[in-house]
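call fold(seq) -> tokens
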Amino acid sequence: RKAKHLQNLIKELNLDLDEPGFRKFKVTINDSPILASERFREFIDLPIEEQKKWNSLNAFDNFKKYIEKIGIYIFRIQMPFEEARAFSLTDDVPIIVLNTEDAKNGRIFSLFHEVCHILFNVGGVFRDKETNNLNSEYKAIEDFCNLFAASFLIPDKLFRIEIDHTNQRLHEWSEKDLIDLSKIYNVSKETILRKLVDLNLASKSFYFEKKRIWYAELIAHKALKKEKNKEIGGGIPQDIKVVSEKGKLFISNVLDSYEKGNISYGQISEFLEVKLDHLPQI
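ret:
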């Protein structure tokens, strides 16, 4: 409901914009997800060399800029982590919604998975196919989007070179190996391990066991952080929170609409869900 409300707000802005760039890029279930990811990297003009140069702390924000640049809105909403890490709505104005409860680097894979859904023009909330029944069409699209995201973030040829020094056979990878590889591509350890499963270099059972451990660690870290914030009586400053949750594309459009006289000054507060005192910082 909140995501639909955000979609309606975008429509209310009465933006006089050109057709968003992402409309010029299509994928179908008959395409190769690996080749589609290569085409998409060229389409958004993000060389892998540039991605590898980034600081891991800024990687998510950098990826986000490239996706917002082609006209896809990205929001973050708090929701139960066990329900969904992300979802997309493709009707009217396509948007991606990421879970605020997820780790920063964990959101990167979800972002590109949902981008793929938008390129398919098939959104919604899809549960993990390993633990829930999906109809064959959705299952095929989910598999495609997973492979698209993994191949975009970690191109196969380069990755095989990176792991050439290791024993390239099915085995259990050490935490250090996964951390080292994740730093090279500025992605999460889970994304690296998922890629190794795709290449038949790690088992699915090993992947799900590690995923369970990492999830438990994430929950414990979140609880500790929450407790610390209570003790110091602080939290995330409102201006940073708004930019993080609403995205620069949406906020820029709200301010542009105000400048053009499409919405009143008071409506800025309604659209951004924040007191106007924070507007200068935003």
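The mean pLDDT is 88.
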